[in-house]
Amino acid sequence: MLRIRRRTVTGGVAIVSVAGEIDLVTADTFRDSLSPHLSDPTTTLLVCDLSQVEFLGCIGLSILVDARSALTARGARLSVVANNPAVLRPVTVTGLRDVLRLSPDLPAALDQSTVD
């Protein structure tokens, strides 16, 4: 089961908080939760809070990389809150730690809204 909470804060920052497992069964739900922000010109930073994710499969990693690419193409950024082994391990093992902008918590991710 996947639980998602979306909210927008001031300054073009959108937050998508995810809890549960991101796998083949829940991939479309996860992708759909990010999708509106990828083409929204008012979103300059999309924070994907995965601190409550219990499993992150390859499909979830692929969705994050695609989201990063879409945002980067229009000058926006993606920040991923990753502070648990269920997220950090697959990100590290696949070499995506150098690709995805990781933050240890939500306040640190939000601080990136002022960083180029």
From TrEMBL:
This is Anti-sigma factor antagonist. GO terms for molecular function: anti-sigma factor antagonist activity. Residues 12-113 form the STAS domain. SUPFAM superfamilies: SpoIIaa-like (SSF52091). The lineage of its organism: Bacteria, Bacillati, Actinomycetota, Actinomycetes, Pseudonocardiales. It comes from the Bacteria. It comes from Actinophytocola algeriensis. Belongs to the anti-sigma-factor antagonist family. CDD domains: STAS_anti-anti-sigma_factors. InterPro entries: Anti-sigma_ant, STAS_dom, STAS_dom_sf.
